[in-house]
Specification:
Length: about 150
């Protein structure tokens, strides 16, 4: 779990971490601000917005590492520039499923299920879900956003 959100739109992850370390001591802010900490968090977001020149709130830009943290915190993410309607990524934790092919039936566990490791899935513009692999460009990009 990544905690609470601060708006990191116009600065990089190192600057955000430095801000949290030096200015954000009242609550465990890292990614999303909500609940009882909302007032404290809003003050800190306002500070960040002023310090780093962001004109309006609403969209939180992050690097790929932070996007992974967000997915592990059960959030959907996408690259800001993706053109496909409704495309997003999400984290699928390790689990097991009932086999649906002869090959899968040959590798079931003692409960009759096929075990799989955690992975990142993509909901495509066509509406289906597929496993997703990051390109070098995706991993180095700093334009990842939370999808509501």
């Amino acid at each position: 779990m990544i905690g609470k959100l601060i708006d990191v739109t116009n600065f990089n992850r190192q600057e955000a971490v430095e801000f949290i370390r030096t200015r954000c001591t009242d609550c465990d802010i890292y990614y999303f601000c909500n609940g009882a900490d909302a007032e404290i968090c809003n003050d800190k977001v306002d500070y960040i917005l002023e310090k780093f020149g962001r004109k309006s709130k609403g969209e939180f830009i992050m690097d790929f590492g932070t996007a992974i943290d967000a997915m592990k915190d059960k959030r959907k993410v996408a690259r800001k520039g993706w053109n496909g309607k409704g495309m997003f990524l999400y984290y699928v934790p390790a689990g097991a499923y009932a086999p649906c092919t002869d090959i899968a039936k040959s590798i079931v566990n003692e409960d009759g299920l096929v075990e799989y490791g955690a992975y990142i899935a993509m909901k495509t513009a066509q509406g289906n879900v597929v496993p997703w692999l990051a390109s070098q460009t995706d991993m180095l990009a700093e334009d990842w956003i939370i999808v509501e």
